[in-house]
Amino acid sequence: MRQYKVFIFIIQVILGVQISMCGFERTSQPTAIFSTACSGTAMFTSDGLWLNPASLGMISSFRASIHYAPSPFDLRQLSNYGMMISQNFVFLNAAVGLQSLGFSLYRESVGSFGTAAMITEEFSAGVTVHLYHLSIEKYGSSLTAVIDAGAICSVTDQMNVGVVVQNITSSSFGADDDIPQLLISGISYRLLEETVINIDLVKDIRYALTYRVGLEFSPMEIISLRAGTEGASSRLFAGVGVHVSSIQVNYGVAYHPELGLTHSIGITFRP
Questions:
Q1: For the segment 98-114, what is each residue's pLDDT rounded down to a tens digit?
Q2: Residue 237 CB: number of other CB atoms within 10 A?
Q3: What are φ and ψ of residue 54, in 5° steps?
Q4: Structure pTM?
Q5: Strand partners, 133
Q6: Which residues, 6+ apart, have CB-to-CB distance to 150 below 8 Å?
Q7: Which residues of 75-99 are buried (b: 16+ CB within 10 A; e: fewer)?
Q8: Do 149 and 53 contact (CB within 8 A), yes or no?
C-alpha cells in the first residue's frame, strides 16, 4: 500500500510540473521579473541572467539577489529558489547564478554563468552557459549544458527592442523536447519617467506563439508596483518592491484560474 501511495504521489508531482510549465521552463525567475509575468526581454536589468543575457550590458556595480517560491499552486514539492550575483568590469559585465526546483524524489538544478558587453552605446549582446542537472530518486541523474544568446538595442531614449534564443544548442536529456527551445522577442517602452511597459512574443518550437505583458510603475522612489499576464497559461501576476537604502525587498503573486496561487519573495542588495 505504501509503495502504491508513493507511486501515485510521484505521478501527481510530474503532472503538476508539466501543467505548471516548470520542467526547466525558466519560471523560477527573480521576484521582480516574476511579478511582470516573466516579461522584459528588451529591458536592461541585473535580474536578467535567466531571461536575456544581453540585459546585463548596462549594470554599473555589484548586485546580489535571492528569490524563493515556497509552494507553487499549493504544491510544496514544486518549491523553487534562486540566487545570483553580478558585477561590472572594464570591457564586459558578468553574472553567476544557481536555481533549484523540486524535492528529494525529483529535483532540477541549474548553474549559470552569463556575460554581456555594450558593443555600442545603444547595442548590447550577451551569452549565458547553463549546466542543467536532473535527479530522480532510484533512476539516477544526468547533466547537460545549455547556451542562450541574446541582444538588446536602444531604438530611442524611451524604447528598447530585444531578442534571445534560449537553448540555442538544442540540448536535451535524451528526449527531443525535454529542455525547451525558445525564441523570444520583445519591446520595453518607458511611458513617462515612472512607468515601464514590457511586451514579449514567445515561440516555443513545440507550441504556438504566445505573449507576455508586464508593467512596472514607481509612484515614489522607494516603491515599485508591478503587474502582468501571459497568454500560454492565462495567469495573472502582481507584485510590489520596497527600496530601503541598499536593500530592495520584492513580493510577487501569480493566479492561475485552475491551479490557484503562486507566491514569490526576493531580496536584492545593491551597495
A1: 999 999 899 999 999 99
A2: 26
A3: -65, -20
A4: 0.88
A5: 109, 143
A6: 41, 52, 53, 54, 55, 125, 126, 127, 162, 163, 164, 165
A7: bebbbbbbbbbbebeeeebbbebeb
A8: yes
DSSP character for 245?
Answer: T
| Cβ neighbours for 6, distance < 8 A, ≥ 6 positions apart | none
Q: Which residues contact 48 (CB under 8 A, 6 or more apart)?
A: 33, 40, 54, 55, 56
54-102 per-position pLDDT tens digit:
999 999 889 999 999 998 988 888 899 999 999 999 889 999 999 999 9
Domains and CATH numbers, the chain: 2-269 (2.40.160.60)
What phi, psi does 166 have (nearest 5°)?
Answer: -90, 130
Residue 163's identity, in one-letter code, is V
- CA-to-CA distance for 43 and 239, rounded, in angstroms? 18
Distance in angstroms (rounded) separating the CA atoms of residues 122 and 152: 8
